[in-house]
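Task 17 of the worksheet. Students: predict the tertiary structure of the chain below and write it out as structure tokens. Keep your answer in the requested format; marks are given for formatting as well as content.
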Amino acid sequence: MSRSLLRSILSVPAVPAVPFVLFLFTGCALYQNLAHPPKVTLDDVQLTGASLAGADLVFHFQVDNPNTRGMVLDGIGYKLRLNGKPMLEGRHDEHIEIAAGQSAVDLPMTVGYSDLLRIVRGLASNPKPTYDLDAEFRFAVPVLGSVTVPLARRGEIPLDKVKLKLDLGR
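Model answer:
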């Protein structure tokens, strides 16, 4: 086989392949730039008030969005247990814009008085009470669509450091 014929055979498929290869690399770079799921951490829990309905808690989360564009937090599902016993379960379906980088997200919860009595008894019966928080953060992420980020946190409640911020209408 002559060299010119060999070159012509090898060069024909290479010409259409060049744009495909370029598209493949740019498409992958674009996908990687937009498609990282966020990371969520629990920063703090505060007792912020009391009313006739019960006690108000706020869970403070930190969301780290590694993407160059923002995303929307569509909702949070949660289950909270104290000393292994169910305490709170629910959904918070507020749409929150999450910018690129770090954002703070607050999850308010109200504990009814019957649950509060159970909590106080649980805290009093155990010198080192524990909590388990299981949460699912549902995000609308460009390219990926709906992404659920689970968070499981177990810890000990430091009774000497429980924060109380009550607004008594003053």
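Marker's comment: Residues 3-34 form the longest helix (32 residues). The first strand starts at residue 39 and ends at 50.
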